[in-house]
Amino acid sequence: xxxxxxxxxxxxxxxxxxxxxxxxxxxxxxxxxxxxxxxxxxxxxxxxxxxxxxxxxxxxxxxxxxxxxxxxxxxxxxxxxxxxxxxxxxxxxxxxxxxxxxxxxxxxxxxxxxxxxxxxxxxxxxxxxxxxxxxxxxxxxxxxxxxxxxxxxxxxxxxxxxxxxxxxxxxxxxxxxxxxxxxxxxxxxxxxxxxxxxxxxxxxxxxxxxxxxxxxxxxxxxxxxxxxxxxxxxxxxxxxxxxxxxxxxxxxxxxxxxxxxxxxxxxxxxxxxxxxxxxxxxxxxxxxxxxxxx
Length: 294
What we know:
It is a single chain. The protein is of the alpha+beta class. Helix content is 39%, strand content 30%. The protein has 9 helices and 13 strands. The strands form 2 sheets. Strands 2-3-4-5-12-7-10-13 form an 8-stranded antiparallel beta sheet, sandwiched between helices. The chain has a 5-stranded mixed beta sheet with strand order 1-6-11-8-9, covered by helices on one side. Helix 4 runs antiparallel to helix 5 (196-217). The longest helix is centred in the C-terminal third of the chain and has 22 residues, at 196-217.
């Protein structure tokens, strides 16, 4: 638990908690940052930060929290292990001018300054720390599956994935363009939307549904957590290129291979394993989606 503390500047404000449903988590977070929680939405104090954080009860035992904020001070979030098993899904976009440090059971991951998308599925009985500078904008979604909900709602194959998660502690997955679009829709609901809570919940459940579907389609022994962190971050960079150059010609395997510092065969293999389709197919599919939006 001292891994990040030994490597980050002080003083850091601290938020220490054990995972609960996100309705109660938000209340504890509000106390820490000196904000006010009303109707499951946190309003930050001027010194505490800017933005918004809202919790949602999707079903009994299934809650979520949508965060779009920048805190007023450097922070260290410490999550202590829960007594009862649960599953936490984090789907986040960090935009930062300083490195972000993430530690899970003392396995340390550094995110350099810039933009980072991360999707991690985590065993709640692990310990976790997240240290970030006050310049960091945190935008994204957390979902908590309590053990009772898991046992009542997941079928045999997904229960095998859950049991595997108890052994390996977490899965990391790459955030694809469709997930990014859904998260952006959640974070940018118009102020005059006639039914904002229903709109947000529907998109959270769509993301959740696709995550479960993806876990069903893959052999759990081939999940992307077996890809090392360096290759994982490189794949996310390549995905970003394919989704932002949609109005241009496909960059080509040779060029993408040079950018990734991987052989063409390795890049093609790891990209298909992570995103479920080849580079060109992914580029074309995203291009069609973009065309429909305009």
